What does this fold into?
Amino acid sequence: MLAFFLAAVVVILTAVWAQFIREDSVAGEIRAHCEAGIAKRLEQFQGSWLCETFNPVTTVSYQSEYHIDGDLVTYRIVTGPGTPGRYSVIDAIEPSHDPPWIDWTAFDIPSGKKAASQRGVYRFEVDTLILNMSRPGYDRPTKVTSERGPENTVLVLKRSK
It folds into this structure.
């Protein structure tokens, strides 16, 4: 009787383990599919970009250099005042919206401390990427524009040759 009971327990545990392995495998396939979709969305963002920016608060112009590798955006200020650089991690790209959405979180260099999360919209024009990013605490912009305002940051990035 004990042997029968132990055999039944082994069969049940084997079935449960097989289901767990199958679910883990399916979850892995879903994760891989999602990661491939994100990588595909990020393809056109990849590379080096230059940006001329005017800060309406300080009324200062400066030039910065952006590099996008995967979901990591690093930038440094080339001319003008400011921090030596920041890096951002792209949290979401959602091209199904009109205009398409982009969200990122900025971190200070070299401390690595979180500086701000920003929600934005974007548009590609040949070798130009126009980003309208909300300032922290403001709503996502509703259109892609070159008009700067107190609630948004406009970045016009030109792809480096």
Notes: Residues 1 and 7 are 10 Å apart (CA to CA). The longest strand covers residues 114-125. Helices lie at 2-42. The first helix runs from residue 2 to 42.
